[in-house]
Design a protein that fits this description.
Blueprint lengths: L6 E4 L9 H15 L4 E6 L9 H13 L6 E4 L4 H13 L3 E4 L3 H6 L5 E2 L2 E2 L10 H7 L5 E4 L1 H8 L3 E4 L3 E4 L9 E3 L7 H11 L4 E5 L5 H12 L5 E5 L19 H6 L4 H9 L10
The protein binds glutamic acid.
The site of glutamic acid has 7 residues, from loops.
Length: 283
């Protein structure tokens, strides 16, 4: 928590068009800052070079402007890769990360791979490879994983505060050895988002409740890297008529489609603020 001005952010990944769920999150983050004379930042989470596309970045800017939102700064994660690398090297020097050569298929095939809230819990095949085994495979594609048990042995029990849920005692072991640097990208969501929120002085992280468990991981990284801990506001998700949260892959109506259908963005934002929008479906 901080005594200075409130700083919030909206941090979309440019991997598709924004839908109403994104709009709700952006409006909440924006208004939380504005109502307190604070700053609202926009961060484009474009470290996934295979899925991020420039037209989706343009779409995000267009959609937010249509909703009547203005941001005080715009940052692209793709321009911050060196920072992520420094943090990864720090964790390597502490002996807390290890290279993992497993494929998705191998992990999925492992009988002991339960689903965590933020993805499958890694069964640990590469956790105890010897230096020789690592050297023999070093030419193969690999990611870097956090040895969560080792990390927790250093940090001890951690907590964080959610303005909606209250104080949360973190259970990072439930998320397993999360990826910090991907095979195809120099950082993972977890590492980049934690470093960026700290670097940008974000005091209040406003985001959907689907990322609630991820915060346990972020709290561990904050402790290991000596970063400040923001207050979190994990808000409910917008769901469709079937009660499913909106998702691009399920064909949720995009803000661009709403705009094309003649919807007024500022009026839509007013309905969101008035709590009128709770559930929306395509049909
Ligand atoms: N980039 C993430 C997403 O689009 C959100 C990150 C966050 O708010 O922490 O789902």
């Amino acid at each position: 928590m901080s005594d200075g001005p409130v700083v919030t952010r909206f941090a979309p990944s440019p991997t598709g068009r924004l839908h109403l769920g994104h709009a709700v999150s952006a409006i909440r983050a924006h208004d939380y800052a504005r109502e307190r004379g604070g700053r609202f930042l926009l961060r484009i989470e474009d470290i996934d070079g295979t899925r991020s596309r420039p037209e989706f970045v343009a779409g995000i800017l267009e959609d937010l402007a249509w909703l009547g939102l203005r941001w005080d700064s715009l940052v692209f994660q793709s321009e911050r890769l060196a920072t992520y690398d420094v943090a990864l090297e720090t964790l390597k020097a502490l002996g807390l990360v290890y290279p993992c050569f497993c494929t998705r298929a191998e992990i999925a095939a492992s009988a002991s791979a339960p689903q965590g809230d933020v993805g499958p819990v890694y069964p640990g095949m590469c956790r105890h490879l010897s230096a020789d085994e690592v050297a023999a495979r070093a030419h193969l594609a690999h990611c870097w994983r956090l040895d969560m048990a080792k990390a927790v042995a250093i940090t001890g029990v951690l907590a964080w505060h959610d303005a909606i849920a209250g104080t949360v005692v973190a259970d990072p072991l439930a998320q397993g050895d999360v990826v910090l640097a991907r095979k195809d990208a120099p950082a993972s969501y977890h590492l980049a988002v934690t470093l960026d929120d700290a670097a940008q002085g974000v005091t209040d992280v406003v985001r959907g409740v689907d990322l609630f468990a991820a915060t346990d991981v972020h709290r561990v990284l904050q402790a290991l890297l000596g970063l400040p801990v923001p207050t979190y506001h994990h808000h409910p998700l917008v769901v469709d008529a079937a009660g499913r949260r909106l998702a691009k892959r399920d064909g949720a109506l995009s803000l661009a489609e709403m705009r094309a259908a003649g919807e007024d963005g500022v009026a839509l934002a007013a309905r969101v603020r008035g709590g009128v929008i709770a559930a929306v479906s395509r049909c």
